[in-house]
Amino acid sequence: MKSNPVFLSVMAALFVANETKAQETADPIGWLQTATGTYFYNDPANWANGNVNGLFGANLNAKATIRMRHKTPLMLKDGDYSFYNTGEVTFEFVGNETTTPLPAYLTEDVTFFNPNATASGKLGNIRFGSSTSTEQLYLDLGGETRTIRSTFDLYLWQSVKNGSFRFGSTPMDIFKYAYFVNEACVEDGDVEALHRTGIVFQNNSNFPGKTRARNLILNNARLTEAFSGAPLITETLTGDIVVNPSDCKVGGYNIIDLSRGYNKHFILQANAIRRKDNAILAINGSIGASGDREDATAVSKNIYLATPPETIQTEGAQGPKAIGIIPWLVLHSQDEWMTYDAERGIRPLDATEYAIYGTDEDVTGLNVIFPKTTTNTVDTALTVNSLILEATDEKASTILQGEGTIHVTSGAVIIGYHRNATPMIRSNIDFGSARGYVYAPKGKGSRFDGIVSGSNGIVFAQMDQAIEYGSGGTGPTLAETSNISGDCYVYSKLSGGGKWWPYGDRLGDIYNYGIIEFSNTTFNGINGSGDFIKSGSGAGSMKVGDNDANGDFTGNIKQGGATSLTKIGAGTQRLTGVISTSAGVFVEEGSLINDGVFSNTVTTVRANARLAGSGRFLGKSDATTTLTIEPDATLAPTRTEAGPMTIESGNLLLENGAILDFGDLNVTSTEGNEHLLVSEAISASTEGDTTVFVSANPTRTGKWLLAKADSIAPHFVVSPGTSLRIFLNEDGTELWGEHFAQTFLLFK
Predict the structure, then answer these.
(1) Could you tell me which residues come within 8 angstroms of residue 339 by beta carbon, excluding any fewer than 6 positions away?
(2) So what's the pLDDT on residue 116?
(3) Are the C-beta atoms of residues 203 and 183 closer than 8 Å to each other?
């Protein structure tokens, strides 16, 4: 924790000073109150030793509401604030008996953290301001976008001004909410919820709603509307609803929850819905169930958009059962597709807007439900707008089969689910030029066995259950082959599909925010933050970079059995997670960037290929060499704020003709600032006969520590065009480069 100066009148510092940290569990230090009450924050009598030191120690363990009244503006500026209460405590920061609201200045991102928190633990909440007119306190963000991460739920009773507001939980597996109560809003900025957190717009009294913010941004997150009192509540965003996948694995769907309220007419209005990386939006509640914009007496929840989303339907089909749908928007129960009309806004399809296969005589071009507990056979080509394989509440499976290819013009497919049945689509599915959307709710046991075709990629989404790996894991099993092209987005767990993903003559990259369980698979570029997991205990392989694709993947690659990872193609693939592939990593073509950890593996770089980055290499216990650079192959270590490229166990083997490229050299480095750090030796393939070429671009006069190891064996020479003098130190453990301002010409 940072140390904190004492500002008796303006500081509200809630962190732990280093010199007292060891005493926290034993001594009654810091804030003295452990019972319900209102206290003056700035009064030294309320603090141990009479010092307003901001320290909340382990003595704060009672279930209570602690109200801290401030005389002067509250300053939240030191970043990390730690709480140590073990009981359920509400912390209220309020103004000091004046009708003029008091500002609380948020001058940088802050974290409210309690190490005693658990995923299910209730440790209370933190509240800013009050509904009482003499206790109002608002957040001032100083004209910036500020983030609060919290172990507690956060309540805001007054406006957030002068900036945009982000909220996230800490740690990120604890779902927390930020409540905007009654009149609270972000006056001129955005409100954003980070991974697995929620924003709540809450009306607790007869309050007609509010202009809440400019844009609402959800990142694998949730908006909840909690309303009561007024017969008609209208909440407004002056900008858009923005839905994104998360930077943190796993998942990529977002929820707008309209279920928490009394029987009132509710409207949420915004300009439009925007999506990044084909993120999914689900809506929970009786949205659009009855009534229209003007009918305030109806029990209805409506979302209206100035720019409605595009609906897709089969060209030429007639009647209500051919109504267009929004493929990326579903009810959270995943029973129904959504559409948009001017009177009811976003709404689910009515029962009259679906055709039932086997009951309706002709379902061509319509939105079709294939009935539950039935084997539905399609033996001739069939074109439908959308497809639902109906969920079953019985043990009998719902199956779609037959020789006829089913053309789904909207790209929208729902696979129903029941834990005692295995729903299956055995028919071939063709999405044509539409992007496919396959929803497999919970999905355990579901199978997608037909060949899937289409030229615009596919999105797999899974809701209602955590995405996990193993016997409790979820998500459908894919056929081994497919003809799908285009980018594929995964917000689910998927198994199988060895030749399913785009590669070869099928273009498109993978965006994995869930789990892809593979065996022997070739991919184009891989992106996202999910996991790739080698299934089973047998050997497997993963090839990345076909079609010269590029990728940037922040998740992990794991193995069930010995697995190899091979970089192919001329593109660049960046990896920043943990890569565990005990059968080796091979860079055969293009560039592979390790900015993460290669664990329990050996890495080999082939001729004309390149390995770069500032990551770590953890070798196998039974191998002396962790990284091998073959002739005409390039190793390009990069030093970042996180440190150098590091081989933490094992040797670096440089074969004759290998290239070390240190790139731009600017800030002069000294001991401890090396670009390449090897725990053991930088060795040569043949002692005395190995020449390694060093390339670099010094951008200023200086001296740089390029590499450090226990011993360095090869003979180094400067590559043509490199204005650098290189040399080893006296004991042969450090490789240095030096650049002078002058150019020396040597004449024979």
Answers:
(1) 311, 323, 324, 325, 326, 346, 347, 348, 349, 353
(2) 77
(3) no
Give the per-residue SS3 of 591-635: EEEECCEEECCCEEECCCCEEEECCEEECCCCCCEEEEECCCCEE
Residue 261 vs residue 146, higher pLDDT: 146
Q: Which of 632, 634, 629 is nearest to 612 (CA)?
A: 634
Burial label, 307 (beta-carbon count in 10 A; 0-12, 13-18, 19+): exposed
- What does the block give as tokens for 276? 């990044």
- CA–CA distance, 605 with 598 (Å, rounded to integer): 14
The H or E element containing residue 156 is strand 153-156
Any idea which residue has 């928007």 for tokens? 329
What is 507-551 written as a DSSP string?
---EEESSEEEESEEEES-EEESSEEEE-SSS-EEEEE-GGG--E
Least confident of 30-34, 531-535, 543-547: 30-34
Tokens encoding 505? 């003559």
- CA-based nearest residue to 485, from 474, 501, 463: 501
Q: How much is the pLDDT for 6?
A: 31
Q: For 442-501, how does the pLDDT look when each residue is reduced to its tens digit (9 = 90+)?
A: 656 788 899 999 999 999 988 765 554 444 456 788 998 999 999 999 988 888 888 999
Please compute the mean of the pLDDT values over residues 15-43 and round it to a whole number: 58
pLDDT digit string, tens, across residues 590-614: 999 999 999 999 999 999 999 999 9
* β-bridge pairing 734-739 and 725-728: antiparallel
Question: Residue 220, by phi and psi: left (phi above 0), alpha (psi -120 to 50) or beta?
Answer: left
Pairing status of strand 510-512 against strand 526-528? parallel
- At CA 171, angle to CA 148 and CA 280, rounded to 5? 80
Amino acid (one-letter) located at 346: I
C-alpha 661/C-alpha 632 separation (Å) is 12
Closest to 423 measured CA to CA, from 395, 459, 404: 395
Tell me whether the omega of the peptide bond preceding residue 171 falls within 30 degrees of 0, making it cis: yes
Task: pLDDT band for 61, please (50, 70, 90 cuts).
Answer: low
Radius of gyration of the chain (CA): 30
Is the peptide bond preceding residue 250 cis, with omega within 30 degrees of 0? yes
Say how far apart CA 348 and CA 367 lie, in whole Å.
13
Reading the block at residue 594, the tokens are 């390790």
pLDDT at 4 over 60: no
Percent of the chain topping pLDDT 70: 89
Q: Angle at Cα 719 formed by Cα 716 and Cα 725, nearest 5°?
A: 65
How distant is the alpha carbon of residue 165 from its chain centre? 18
Average pLDDT score over residue span 141-169: 95
Q: Return the structure tokens found at 646.
A: 């590091």
Supply 614's token pair: 């500032």
Q: How far apart are CA 465 and CA 473, in angstroms?
A: 9
Q: Which residues contact 80 (CB under 8 A, 6 or more apart)?
A: 1, 2, 15, 110, 111, 113
State the burial class of residue 260 (Cβ atoms within 10 Å of its Cβ: 0-12, 13-18, 19+): middle
pTM of the model as a whole? 0.90
> What is the spatial distance between Cα 94 and Cα 39, in angstroms, rounded to a whole number?
10
CB 353 within 8 A of CB 280: no
What pLDDT, on a 0 to 100 scale, did the predictor assign at position 20? 32
